[in-house]
Amino acid sequence: RAKHAGGNRYELADPEADARAITRHGLTTALPVALERGEFFIEYQPLVHLGDGSVRGAEALVRWLHPQHGVISPDRFIPLAEHTGLIVPLGRWVLEQSVRQARAWEAGAGADPAAGPLRVNVNLSPCQLTHPGLVSDTVEILERAGLAPGSLCLEVTESALIGADDDLLKPLRRLAEMGVDIALDDFGTGYSNLANLRRLPVSVLKLDRAFTQGMQHFPADPVDLKIIEGIVSLAHSLDLAVTVEGVETGAQADQLRELGCDTAQGWYYARPGPPDRLHELALADAT
Ligand code: C2E
Ligand code: MG
Ligand code: MG
Ligand code: MG
After folding, report:
1. DSSP assignment of 86-109, as one string?
2. Ligand 3 centre from 159 Cα, in Å?
């Protein structure tokens, strides 16, 4: 095996990886056409308030309905889109669709009025962060849809912001000043200096699924629980809300609520699905 001979050689030594490489090439060339042909679609996964179980919004998750391969997950094509630069128009498309969707949820009576309008979370790739049009595009998209900036949350991964200098943070700061929430996604998987959090214009920490996975065993490892408790207390002392990803069981939800987490997302509540379903879920818990 040419395992140590570098990326391409290794892939040629492994038939399965070779097949993947061919597909990867095929997918990469198909990407720009896919955007033109409207092969992308968005699923929405509810974000649930742990305190009262109400649906507060949803994360927008993009999928590619490939004419030959069927539905392709973002883990497969987002890295390709980032590599080719297509992520900028694709990301803008996701943002525009999601913002319009949030406006549609708001306009349709359905959300619990006491809980406020349903909000939408949109993932931003690092390439979008450094793209000069980010702030103006976002402002324009919000204005055109008539959505308040406070109904939008942009998710940026912790790793994208590690060691970020002021130039990189500037557009996020401007968006935060306008009222857009910024969430630090996949938190706990990078190696960010916790003290550094103060410097970032974020208002939400999204604890990575790795934390909830660690809680699958019952009773959960007390050290894992202490770590979550510590992160939650630090986050709250910095005025950050804590969302947990990957909640798959009621026991996990109970434990995370006790640990002080604010919002949860995961299969226990709902898998990602079509936008109308969010309305139904929100209605169901409002009645
Ligand atoms: P993410 O932002 O961390 O999104 C959460 C992922 O966890 C989603 O995977 C979601 O379907 C999955 N998930 C949710 N609940 C559970 C659960 O209870 N158990 C398990 N095992 N998984 C759960 P998905 O949809 O495959 O997306 C993967 C990643 O692709 C996202 O991770 C995000 O980084 C990226 N992505 C998705 N849509 C976009 C987009 O529009 N733009 C960009 N830049 N990235 C996107
Ligand atoms: Mg995310
Ligand atoms: Mg995440
Ligand atoms: Mg994640």
Report:
1. THHHHHHHHHHHHHHHHHHHHHST
2. 12
Q: Does residue 43 have its Cβ closer than 6 Å to ligand 1? A: no
Ligand 1 pocket member 208 (CB < 6 A): no
Q: Please state the φ and ψ torsions of residue 109, each to the nearest 5 degrees.
A: -70, 125
Among 109-118, 203-212, 245-254, where is mean pLDDT lowest? Answer: 109-118
Q: What predicted TM-score, i.e. pTM, was given to this entire model?
A: 0.91
Ligand nearest to the CA of 212: 1
Measured between alpha carbons, how far is residue 30 from residues 24, 33, 74, 76, 188 in Å?
Answer: 10, 6, 15, 13, 34
Angle between helices 87-107 and 15-37 (to 10 degrees): 60
Which residues partner with 273 through β-bridges?
44
Q: Which residues are CB-contacts of 178 (< 8 A; sequence separation ≥ 6)?
A: 139, 149
Tokens of 113: 């009025």
**Are the C-beta atoms of 207 and 190 separated by less than 8 Å?**
no
User: Over the stretch 70-110, which tens digit does the pLDDT of each residue have?
Assistant: 999 999 999 999 999 999 999 999 999 999 999 999 987 55
The distance in angstroms from the start CA to the end CA of the chain is 61
Q: Is 248 in the pocket of ligand 1 (CB under 6 A)?
A: yes
Confidence (pLDDT) at 11: 43
Please report which ligand is nearest the Cα atom of 211: 4
Residue 217 φ then ψ, to 5°? -85, 140
